[in-house]
Amino acid sequence: MQDIKDGQLVKNCSYINGKWHASSSEAHAEIEVINPATGALVTRVNNAGIAETELAVQAAKNALKMWSSKSANERSTLMRNWFNLMMQHQDDLSRILTIEQGKPLAEAKGEIAYGAAFIEWFAEEGKRIYGDTIPAPSGDKRIIVIKQPIGVVAAITPWNFPNAMIARKAAAALGAGCTFVVRPATQTPLSALAMAELAERAGIPAGVFNVVVGDDAHGMGKILTEHPDVSKFTFTGSTPVGKALIRQCATTVKKVSMELGGNAPFIVFDDADIDAAISGAMVSKYRNAGQTCICTNRIFVQENVLTAFTEKFVAAVDALKIGNGLTKGVTIGPMINSDAVADVAKLVKDSVAAGAKVVLGGKQGENESFYQPTVLTNVTNDMPIAHNEIFGPVSPIISFKNECEVIAMANNTEFGLAAYFYSRDIGRIWRVAEGLEFGMIGINEGLISNAATPFGGIKQSGNGREGSKYGLDDYLEIKYLCLGGLDK
Ligand code: NAP
Known about the structure:
Blueprint: E1 14-16, E2 19-21, E3 30-34, E4 41-46, H1 50-69, H2 72-88, H3 90-101, H4 105-125, E5 132-134, E6 142-149, E7 152-156, H5 164-176, E8 179-183, H6 190-202, E9 209-211, H7 217-226, E10 230-236, H8 239-249, E11 255-259, E12 264-268, H9 274-286, E13 296-302, H10 306-318, H11 338-353, E14 357-360, E15 374-377, H12 384-387, E16 394-400, H13 403-411, E17 415-416, E18 418-422, H14 426-435, E19 440-443, E20 458-459, E21 462-463, E22 476-483
């Protein structure tokens, strides 16, 4: 952990009820955190399990009344302290993130600012949880609607955004007056634990924000999804795991939000600004080495601009500098591990066998955790690469003839998270935006997420929204009060 200025941010055990909790009861007492760029051991973290998850839920339950009865202003002040501390420690938090996850330092800094922005946003939104009055059907009654925190929230998050995927959920939960337990991905626990250290320094009371780190995903997941004291479960991860967790939540009829997989189309029409489309495709495809849920998965280019787009795009991808995210000038880091590289390599191999052509990359990078930025042409929408979430630095280019055809091709997926298209024709912009079956659409824009916007998908990409004025809804219950007997 070289060059971390504040060594107290690097923690090695779970944070439960305001205490750093080390357990020696598990068969495997420690988790090894590995730097994906070098394969080197970064540190070991105490391996919590079912017992610690139970403790964390209990702590969150015990803290609920205290936290939910604070005024929105009081909660907001503490959350703003947390936001300020995250920004003050942005450099250290970014280094920790790059070391455990791999993304280039500049991207990691962006993730810290992005995650912190949700804490700032919901610190304010919590002050605007308005109720309603409804005209009653008879004069002797009044109808009032109030909104209350749903209760204890449990979360499971993935490794690709080890800070922001937690911040997006915890900020909304805490802003709504809920308490929170998160189990971060086993590969990236350090960012989550650093957030807990800063939450404590910010004055967030014990039991309000708990982090349990352990490799028993199934066992800990069962507690978080089936515990009767957990009122709401929120998950970010793959669609198959999300489906299994929804089934588990059914046992106690929990409210769930799911941020699952995607298969984003990126459409370039012949009236597009091609240079702008190239910039958008680069940022939406190669950020985090292609490992984001809203990453472009299929690039559709209208046939009369196919050559112009492909030539410039290949040149832009070729200019990416692959390497250790801590090295200056590196713009694309490793993938999370060698299994992820093998999955991507297989998709490329199968595409080539089906007729695709590798025009750039197509090989493992400097070690088994790297895959070269790759561009494939001659791809068709029926190849496996067009139907699977690639989750790696590979761009398949598919040509199309007209608007109707490309909307049908883009929608031909069970996923519905993000889509992008480039056009300067206002009529086309409306038609295509309305025709695409996705929760978020970037129009002449490849970077679409921030705290002010409702992030989320439709179809099998999930349900619920994170961020924006809608983001609190998932953490609130609506209660209707009928005030009767008002006749004299
Ligand atoms: P994953 O395999 O579903 O894992 C996500 C989390 O679930 C990890 O913490 C994992 O723990 C845990 N998990 C796995 N199996 C579990 C089980 N049976 N019970 C309880 N928890 C379980 O997904 P991933 O490969 O890490 O992440 C990539 C996926 O996340 C992609 O599909 C991506 O699109 C999606 N994603 C979606 C969004 C969004 O907002 N829609 C954002 C980011 C990522 P371990 O770490 O111990 O395996």
